[in-house]
Design a protein that fits this description.
five-stranded antiparallel beta sheet; mainly beta; single chain
């Protein structure tokens, strides 16, 4: 949903892609078959947000991609190197 200063809103399609791996799994005190909750620590490697067909964010630590609010910050870093 996008909101405007006038108060109007517009519903748009958005897709979020997240890739990562679990870094810590808590010890379980729950009996098998019983309900329970647990908090897992996850290290995110890739994050990509596409809203209304436009890529807003694309962060990929492995590939060296750093796009935030459609600005490629990695290209600025590459120019310095």
């Amino acid at each position: 949903m996008i909101s405007y200063p006038s108060g109007a809103i517009r519903v748009v399609q958005g897709v979020c892609y997240i890739s990562g791996y679990v870094t810590q799994v808590p010890a379980s005190a729950v009996n098998p078959g019983a309900e329970g909750t647990a908090d897992y620590n996850v290290s995110v490697v890739k994050y990509r947000l596409v809203v209304d067909g436009e890529e807003l964010h694309n962060i990929d630590r492995a590939a060296g991609v750093l796009v935030i609010n459609k600005v490629d910050y990695r290209s600025e870093v590459d120019k310095l190197l």
